[in-house]
Amino acid sequence: MKVFEAIADAVVAHGVDTVFGLLGDANMFLVADLVERHGVRFVAARNENAAVMMADGYARSTGRCAVATVTQGPGLAVAGAALTIARQARTPLVLIAGDTPPGDPLHVQHFDQQPYALATAGTFVPVSAASTAVRDVGSAFRAAREMPGPVVLNVPIDLADAPVPPGPVVAVPVVPRAPRPLVPDPADVEALAERLRSARRPVLLAGRGAEPAAAAIRDLADRGGAVLATTLMAAGLFAGHPYDLGVAGGLSRPLTRRTLARADLVVTFGAGLNRWTADHGALFRDAEVVSVDVDPAAIGARWPVTAGVVGDAGETARAVSAVLAPVHRPSWRSSDLAAGLAVADPFAGLVVESAADRIDPRAFIRICAEHLPRERTTVVGVGHFGGWPNLLLDSTATDRSFLAPWEFGSIGVGLPFAVGAAVGRPDRPVVAFEGDGSLLTGLGELDTLARVGAPVLLVLLDDAAYGAEVRKLAPRGADPGLARFPERDLAAVARALGLPAWTVTDEAGARVAFDEVLPLTGPAVLHVRVRPDVVQERF
């Protein structure tokens, strides 16, 4: 048995049935063995960065540890942005990276992969000997699941082809240690309970880290007379609750914004509280802010807080509920507020105006709200365009059906994350919103989408520009033309790469396109030419 075969056995023993990647000298025989001997599905991307993003999307939509593989040198180097995104999102992911022979520092593809992996993924596990390969695979999976976060499993090309020493090679899955929920200090619990007793207009704000604790936070809100809100990443977590304000931040809706402005206490649970969540200080400016997080370093790191509680979100919410007598706040949790939230229309009051050859993006999103299936995975890429679906479309973080990979601010994430999510959850369609500039950074992944054949509707909101840069250049007197580009027929490009595609320039055309593309049974592209002068002010 060769080392790459032993690694394949160990990977499969960890329950892996899907691998994303791009072939090269240092990993192609590993991939061939995974496919031919083990029946693993290999999703071949056109770019290593996209391959790791696909794996990240797969992990986020399934909750499983994802696996990707790239070759040595440039293969790993190209994947740096995706690894950084996964690290900031704490995505459990193992990237099996080939490496050049340690004894050949002049190899054309040589560079020092360990510091690069530590700077991006954050964790590096080298396979240093044939006798330790299986153990090293186990260490990589354990680290990815326990941290959690991405891990680079580094396999030199000469070692991968070396024979495994005689003796039994048993690929025993390494079961990660289940972390014990961090119980908060009783003094901190009582202090938070006292703040809730004294507050007149409290808000409980949950982030993605609090998703498992949603029920406990809802119970605490009911007991403490608080209203509920979420960060963008946890959008829809409290959907259906009569006092769910929705997303807090720059993308808050008008009623949410007015309500949060009156808050005198905001308690965050598992939320990466930052300037966007606080809308640069425009939201809850008069409120005390208490942050509950398992990581003490995260409390107050990106936005000032009044106090912090180190503890698991669910454990903390339940502990506070246990010492808090029911509090009724009819002036805060009013019937008027509940009624307003129940009938709130995000499109009310919007004055939309489409040009002759370009649709107002808000008008298009309104048509999306009318036509898109409720049971779907929604992926929103990074860019000015992303403000419209995030602001106007209802999404839900429950069942891992909303992905906004905005952690690193990297463009080009929408399409690869959508492919990964679709591979991971083939039982529901994926609707991905992407911009023209973002798509053109990874155009080859249209081919990947066509080959995968998954039900993904890629919505391209095309303003023929990098819209965020145009918006920022012009007010300071710089030439916004630097961020504008010629119009391209992206629907024709998609069709050339094997995808059915429609071009949308007006509301009637949008409705016709949706009638033709839905229900979604395979990949499709809507190339939507939007007015470039419609600005999302709080993006």
From TrEMBL:
PROSITE patterns per UniProt = TPP_ENZYMES
- What are the residue boundaries of the Thiamine pyrophosphate enzyme N-terminal TPP-binding domain, all occurrences included? 1-106
Q: Name one GO biological process term.
A: isoleucine biosynthetic process
The Thiamine pyrophosphate enzyme central domain is annotated at 189-319
Q: Does the keyword Transmembrane apply?
A: no
Tell me a Gene Ontology molecular-function term this record carries.
acetolactate synthase activity
Give all residue intervals belonging to the Thiamine pyrophosphate enzyme TPP-binding domain: 382-528
Q: Which cofactor does it need?
A: thiamine diphosphate
What CDD domains does the record tag this protein with? TPP_enzymes (cd00568), TPP_PYR_POX_like (cd07035)
Would the keyword Transmembrane be found if you checked this record's keyword annotation?
Answer: no
Listed PANTHER family: ACETOLACTATE SYNTHASE CATALYTIC SUBUNIT, MITOCHONDRIAL, THIAMINE PYROPHOSPHATE ENZYMES
Q: What family does this chain come from, according to its entry?
A: Belongs to the TPP enzyme family.
**Protein name, UniProt field:** Acetolactate synthase large subunit
